[in-house]
């Protein structure tokens, strides 16, 4: 996203609404449309204060924040967007004349990632519980014991999950979840770089 020093939004990359909702402490639902927020979350405002304080000499805190959430670790970083050939010292002389680029990166927790991929693929909540455990390499009997259900229930949920995802075994399920993670991370870093 690109902001003015007084926190007015100039540009926002598509798909950033989910990360802004996580920053605001709201639950993120990857399966439905989320409207754009009408205000910036507090961590972004704090980041703007840090970069402004660094420019005018009242703070030496670097304009970078890391926050942990249920979804993973969010990293926020702010940088001045000055004209070509302008040194950072010149930007510091008149910071209000330049824009600020804020990048937000989400490093999902493994379980949150697996749940999101399964949810996006059409798995039911019960199938998601079993699918996450299968993707983590657990045997069906161990999953049944951990979830407190019969082995036959886990076996039935597994068969239905495999049909839903068009896979044939736990190895294919894991590949679908974890290889997809690398592709999604590459897309996210390109998408959320601005």
Features:
194 residues; Arc Repressor Mutant, subunit A; 2 domains; 49% helix; elongated
Topology:
Elements: E1 2-3, E2 9-11, H1 17-23, H2 42-56, E3 64-68, E4 72-81, H3 88-93, E5 99-108, H4 110-120, H5 125-135, H6 140-147, H7 151-165, H8 170-191
Antiparallel strand pairs: 1-2, 1-5, 3-4, 4-5
Helix pairs in contact: 4-5, 4-8, 5-7, 6-7
Please provide the count of β strands. Answer: 5
Tally of separate domains: 2
Walk across the major sheet and give the strand order.
Answer: 2-1-5-4-3
Query: Could you say which structural class the secondary elements and strand pairing correspond to?
Result: alpha+beta
H-E order: EEHHEEHEHHHHH
Q: What is the global morphology?
A: elongated
- Terminal Cα span: 5 Å
Radius of gyration: 21 Å
Strand content: 15-25%
Extract low-pLDDT stretches: none
Mean pLDDT reading? 82
Number of helices: 8
Main sheet: strands, sense, barrel: 5 strands, antiparallel
Question: How do you describe this structure in short?
Answer:
The chain has helices at 17-23, 42-56, 88-93, 110-120, 125-135, 140-147, 151-165, 170-191; strands at residues 2-3, 9-11, 64-68, 72-81, 99-108.
Descriptive notes:
By secondary structure, this protein is an alpha+beta fold. It folds into two domains: 2-108, no CATH class; 111-187, Winged helix-like DNA-binding domain superfamily/Winged helix DNA-binding domain (Arc Repressor Mutant, subunit A, Orthogonal Bundle), CATH 1.10.10.10. Helices cover 49% and strands 15% of the residues. It contains eight helices and five strands; from the N terminus they run E-E-H-H-E-E-H-E-H-H-H-H-H. It has helices spanning 17-23, 42-56, 88-93, 110-120, 125-135, 140-147, 151-165, 170-191, and strands at 2-3, 9-11, 64-68, 72-81, 99-108. The chain has a five-stranded antiparallel beta sheet with strand order 2-1-5-4-3, sandwiched between helices. A hairpin with a 5-residue loop joins strand 1 (2-3) and strand 2. The chain is elongated, with a radius of gyration of 21 Å. It starts with a strand and ends with a helix. The model has no long low-confidence stretch (mean pLDDT 82).
